[in-house]
Protein 1
Amino acid sequence: MKLSNVIRRTSAALAVGAMSLGLVTVTGGAAQAIASCTGDVSIYGTLSDGRLTYTQIEPNTGDRAKTLIGPDLGFTPKAMATLNFNTVLVTSTAGDLYRVDVQTNNTSLTLAGVTKIWDGGWTFDKMVYDGAGHLYGTVEGQLHQYLVSQAKPSGSAHIGQHVVIDTGFVLKTLAAAGDDRIVASTSDGRLLSYKINGVNDWDRSVLKSSGWSSVDSLSSPGGGLYYGRTNGGMYWYHDSDPTDGDGSDIAYHPSDPVDASGWTQSLLSAYADNCAYVAPTPPKSVQGGTIYRSEVMTRAKNWYTRDVPYNQGASATDIEGDDLYRTDCSGFVSMAWHLTTSLTTRTLPDVSTQISKADLRPGDALNYSAEHVVLFTGWKDQDAGTFYYYSESNSNVDMEYGSASLYSGDIAGWPASSYVALRYDKIA
C-alpha cells in the first residue's frame, strides 16, 4: 500500500488543534459534518494469505497516516468485526470464532495472541460491531444479533442473548454506523440505512438509490464517516446527519480518495466506536422564518409529549410558550413549522411545495386538503413505503404517533391515496 496521502497534503497539520479537542470538521460539497473522534480512524484487515493489517486514516482530511502488516493469523478468515482499538473478532472458513488481541500497532503490528473462543457455528458471510455492545452477522439473508458484554470476550459467557432480527438482509457490504445502526450497499447499487429496534422490528431508509454497485467493502468508525473500497481504491464519504435516514447530505470526495489503489485486503473492519455523531445546534427560528428540520421535529415532539388535547376551537402554546396555535391537525403542523398563524389543510399548500412521496424527509407533511394533515417523521421501510408520523388527530386520541403506508390502507383514518406530500418552503 502506498503512503502517498501522508505527504500529499501539508494542510493536514492545520487540523491538529481541532483533533486535540476531539472535534473534527469534515467538509466536502455542501455538507458540513461534525464527528467527535478519539483519534485517527482505525481499520483492520486481512490479506489473502491470512496476514493481519492495520491502517490509520485522519478523519478530517481522509489522509492515510500509516499502514502496517502483521503476522499470519493461522487460519483462513471469513468475517471480521473490530470490537475496540486492540481487539478484533474473526471467523474462520471452518466456522470457528477467534479473538485477535493486538499488542501494538504503533510502528509495527504485533499480536498478543490469537484465541479460539467458539468452536463451530459461526458461518456468517459478514460481521460488524456497532461499538455499543451489539454484534451483527448476516448469513443466507438473515440478520443475527448478539450482545457483547466484555471488551475481551472469551466465549458464550461474554457473547450471548443471540436473536435473529429478520430475513431479507441480502447485502453486498455491511458496516455499523452507530448504536444499532447499520449501513449497507446492495448489488444493484443502493446504499441503505437500518435502525434495528428488535426482533422483526427495524427501520430502513434508502440513502442512495444507485451508484454503489462497485463498492465491495464498506466500513464506518461512526460519526457519519463511511469508507468504501472500489476497484482497490479507498474512498471516503461523510453524512451530515447519519441518524435521519436521508442520504442527500452525504458528501463525496472522488478527486481526493484515501488511496486511488493498493487496498487488496480480503476483509476490512473499522473500529466502530472511534467517532460519534455530534448533532449541530441550528439557530432558533422566528415565526414565518427559516427553520431546520431538527427544530421542526423538536417542536412536534413537544406537543406529542404534552399530549395536547384536540380541539378545533382551542389553542395551545408552542415549546417556547410564546406563540399560540389552534389545536387541530393543521394547527399542529403550523406550530411545527413555526408559521405566523394557524393555517388549514386547504391553505397549507400556500406556504409549501408538493413533492414526490418517495422524497419525503422528516419535517415534511402529508396533506389531504379536504380533511387531514400529518407530519412525516421518518421511514419505517422506505422500499415498502411505510413511515412514521405525528398527528393531532381527533378528540378520541388527541396527539398521535403512528405508522402507515403511503400507497395502501389509510393514514390516521383517511385513505392514503388522498394525501399529497408537502415541503415547507422555508425548511432548511
Note: Residues 155 and 262 are 35 Å apart (CA to CA).
Protein 2
Amino acid sequence: MRSIKIFLFLLTFALPASATDAALAKILAALSTEQSTLLYQYGTLNTWATPVEADSFWRVHQPALGAITPEQGKVLATELLNNTTLAYTIKKPSRLQALRGVFTASRLLLGLAALVAAFAAVQLIGRYLPGAWQWLLRHFYPLFRRLFSPQMLSWELLVVALAGIYLGPLIPDLVIRTIVIHVGLVLFWTQLTAILTRRYFAKQYTRIIVESFEDYNTPLEAFLYVSIPALLTSTAVWWVMQVCPDAWYPYEVIVPAMVGVFTLPPLRGMEKALSRLLFPFTHERLRAKDQRAAAYMVISLVVWVALLLLPILLPEALLVLTIFLTGAFLLISIADVIHSGGKNYIWLQLLTLGFLFAVVITGAQLELLLLTWTGMGGLLLYVLIKYWEVPVLLGWSWKNKKAWGALGMALLIWGIAVLIRSRPEWFTFFQG
C-alpha cells in the first residue's frame, strides 16, 4: 500500500513539470523566425554578457515577443542556444557574393571552352588533313585495340575510380566534389565486380550478381562476386568519411557493407537456420526466397545490435539500418505478403511490435530524435495496416466499402493526433 502511495505521489508531482514542458513546446513550435532570432540573441547575452545587458535587451524587444514571460523566455532561449546550428545563407546579393559567383562561373566556362576546342580540333583535322585519320588508325589501331579492350577498359575505369575517390575530397565546390566522389564509388564497385567475374559488360555481371542471391553460384563464388566488391566499396566510403566533411557518407557506408555481409560464406550456409527465428513453425506454403529474406532480416538485426554495442556510436548507419528493418518488419507482418501460417503470423506481429518499441526506447536512451521518430512512425503505420488487414482476416470484406474505410482511417488518425496534442507527455521519451 505504501508503494502505491509513493507511486501516486511521484506521478502527481511529475504532472506539473510535464504540463509546463508541453506548454513551452507549443510556444516553441509557434515561434516566428523573428522571435526565434530574438530569443537566440537573448540566450547569447544571458550566457556571455552581463545580466543588466540581457535584461535591457529583453525590455527593448518585449513587444515583438508577445505574451512570452521572462521566465519562459530564459528557458526557450537556453533551448534554442543549445540545440541550434547556425548556417550561412545569402539573404541578399552583395559584391563579394557576386565576385565569388563570377570565379565559379569562370571555372565552368574554362572547362566548356576546352571541350568545344577539342571538338573543333577534331573537325579541323578531318577537313584539312583528310588522310590523318586513316594514318592514325593504321599505325595506332593495335594500341587502341589493346587500350580499349573490355578487360583493359575495366582496369582503366578502376584507376579513374580510385583517382576520383582519392582526389575528390580536395575539390572545393560541393556539387562537383559530390558528383566526382559518387561517380568514383560507383565505378569502383562495378569495375571490381566486372574484373572478379570476368564479365566486362553490365548486363553480364548484373545477371551473375542476381544468380548469386538465388543459389545458382556456390558460396565461394558469391563471396568473390558480391562480398569482396561490396566490402571494399564500403571501406572506400569509410575512407571518404574520414577525409571529407560532407554529411551524407556516414549514411551510405552501411549499404555496401550489408550487401557484402549477406553473401559471406558462413552466413549463406546458415540461412535456413536463421530464418527459423522469424518462421519457427513449419508451413507448406513458405517459399525458399521468403526464408532467405528472413535470414537477411535476422543478419541485419544482429548488425543493428552490434552497432549499439560498439564503443563508438555510428548514428547515421544505425538510422539507415533501422529504417530498412522497420520497412521489412512491416512488410512481412502482412499476411498476404508471406504465407507462413497462423502461428508464424502471430509470432511476426509480436516481433514487429517488439522491434518498433525497442527502436523508440533506443532513440530515447541515445538521444537520437530521428531514431525515435522512426519507431513511432513505424508504430503508426503498423496500426493503419492492421486497420485494413485484421477485418479481412476475420472474414470482413472491404469491397464497395473502401470509402467508408478511408473515412474510418481518417477518424483513427485524427484520434491519434488529438491524443498526442492532449497528452504530449505520454509521447516524450527524452529527459532534460
Note: The first helix runs from residue 2 to 30.
Protein 3
Amino acid sequence: MTKSIALSLVLAASLGLAACSGAETENTANAAANSAENASNAADNAMNAAMNAADAAANAASNATNDVANAM
C-alpha cells in the first residue's frame, strides 16, 4: 500500500516535471523517483525485519511451552 502510494506520487511529480524541458529537470525527476523507491524499499525491509522478529518470538514461546510440557 505504502509503496503504491509513494510510486503514484513520484509518477505525478515526474509528469509535472516532464512538461518542463531540460536535462536538469529530467535528472531531478529521476533522483526523486530513486529516492521514493529507496524509501519504499527501506520501509519494506523494516516491515520484514519486524515480522521476522515477531516470528522468532512466537517460535521461542512455543519452544518454551513445549519444553515445559516435555519436562512433566
Note: The longest helix spans residues 23-71.
Protein 4
Amino acid sequence: MTTLGAVIVLFHPTAEQVARVVELRKHCDNLVVVDNTPQPDSRLTALFEEYDITLINEGNKNGIAGAHNRGLASQFERGADAVALIDQDSVMPENYFPVMREICSTLASQPFLVGPRIFEEAVQEYLPVLESNGIAVRQLDMHEDAGMQRCAFLISSGCAISRAAFAKLGPFDEKLFIDHVDIEYCLRARERNVPLYATPVLTLSHRIGDLRRHKLGPFELMTVNHPWYRRYYNARNAVQILFRYGRRYPIVFILNLSTLKEIFYITLLEDAKLAKLTGILLGIVDGLFGRLGPIEHTRPRLVLRFAHGANRRGRRG
C-alpha cells in the first residue's frame, strides 16, 4: 500500500488554519509542518506533539522553496512513497487522501507529480489547467469524466510528488526563495521527462494573493494586491526563468508579460504604488544580473526603506 505523507507550510497561521492542520492529521499517513514564521511558537510545538505531527521551525530562512525541501526530505527519510504539499490557505476536500493515494498506487514507483483542480475562492472560479508544447498553450477539458490528464503546470499546494520524482528532480530552487518556485520545478520536470498530471476528480479550494475585481469602463480587471516585496520576487524570478528555459520553452515569456500587466494594474488600481513599482524595477534588474536569494541579502537598503510594511517576508500565495 502506498504511504502518502503531507507537508504543510505555515506563516503566521490563524487559529482556524492551525485547527485545519490538526484535522488533516487524521487523513494522511504522516504529517510534517514546516513553520516559516520567523519566531517559533512554543504553543504549536506542544499542540503538534500531542497529535503526532512533526514540526520543523524553518524561520523562513530559505522561503517557500526551503520549507518544501525540509518537509519533503523529512517525509522521504521516513519512508513515504509520495508526499502532498499543502499551503495553509488551502482547504482540502474530504476525499483528497484516499483518491490521491489510489492515484499514487496506480502510478506505482515511477516518477510523477499529480495535482487537483484549483478553485479560487476570492473570485469563485476554477483556474485553467494548461498543456503546452513549449511554444503554444491550450486549456484542458477538466470535466470529471475526462480522466487524469498530462499538463504543463501545477501549483505546489495539493501537488503530490513521488519519491522517484524527487530523486530525479532534486530539491526546489531555494535561490528563488518565493514566487514561481513551482513553475520552475514544473519546467525542470518537463526537461527531465517527469510527467505532470491533473486529476478532475479532486478540487482544492485555495486563495492566490488578495484577488479583487475592478470595473474600468466596459472592462473587468483583476488585481492580486501582493505587497512590494512579493512584486520584487515575482519580477526577478520571471526574468530568471526566462534565462534558464526561454530558449527551449518560449512560452515562459508570458511570465514577463504578466509583470508588465502588473505595472499597469498597480499604476491604475492598487495602493502603495511607489513601493510596488520600485520592487518590480529592482527585481527585473536583479533577475538580469542573477542576484538571487532573500531580498534582505540582495536589497537590504530597499528593505530598510520600506520596513514599515508588514511582514517583509512572504509565503506562496
Note: The radius of gyration is 19 Å.
